[in-house]
Amino acid sequence: MHRINTIIIEDEPLARKRLEGMVAKIGQLEVLGCYEDPIDAEELLQSGNVDLMLSDIQMPEMDGVSFLRSLSNPPFVIFVTAHREFASDGFELDVLDYILKPLLTQERLLKAIDKVQNALALHRSTPKNQVLKFKDAQKTIFINPAEIYYIKAFGDYAKVITENETFTISSTLKELEKRLSWNMFVRIHRSHMVKIDQIKSVDAVKVILKNNEKLDIGLQYRSNLYNRMGLKID
Predict the structure, then answer these.
(1) Are 157 and 168 in contact (CB under 8 A)?
(2) Planar angle of CA 18, 92, 115, nearest 5 degrees
(3) CB-based contact 159:172 (threshold 8 Å)
(4) What angle is formed at CA 200 by the lines to CA 175 and CA 187, rounded to 5 degrees?
(5) Looking at the DSSP assignment, which residues form a beta bridge with residue 221?
(6) Within a 10 A sphere around the Cβ of 67, how many other Cβ atoms?
(7) What is the tens place of the pLDDT at every residue in 86-127?
(8) How far apart are CA 73 and CA 186, in angstroms?
(9) Going along 184-227, which residue ranges are E strands?
(10) Which stretches within the chain are classed as H helix?
């Protein structure tokens, strides 16, 4: 059975200690770090080694919802919070579970971890480089990921640019990130995702592709892009 690489983000010391104790009793979980401030967890999250983030929401420096929105390739998330009012935000961001602190028990946490195990099993068993299928009105579009140059977001739609064609599909970049291979693609902007082997050059503000198209780099995505390309930020 795969271990679930986990981080805990909780600003309240007593709540953090309690959650650490509960997590320690769950053999499937491997805790990689415990953090008071979500910003301190960013470097580890960018490494791509984290499967699960257990996080509070209301925190002094940055709230958990905003932090999750800032991540270009987030892990699975369980929010553990005292605030019921953020539930709609959490599920909009596809969190796997939302546990209110007064209802947090070992049994309730185990139920949430079961969801994580099921999601990870599906994620690991799904071939990432298979031909993608999308419904478009009365027809089905088939796209081979190996032929993609880059993808550009337009709200709930995306334009997929390949060597010979451009397709408009009903999908968000976040949904496409889950379907495409992490090794093949990288998010460089909230509106752009590119195939790594199509990158010809990179500078501080833009990527130039082999077809000479220029795409902006979003500031929050630059660090991850540079890490993926083996570059250092000056």
Answers:
(1) yes
(2) 50
(3) no
(4) 20
(5) none
(6) 23
(7) 676 666 677 888 899 999 999 999 999 998 998 888 666 655
(8) 9
(9) 185-189, 192-195, 199-202, 206-209, 214-216
(10) 13-24, 42-46, 64-70, 87-92, 106-125, 173-179, 219-229
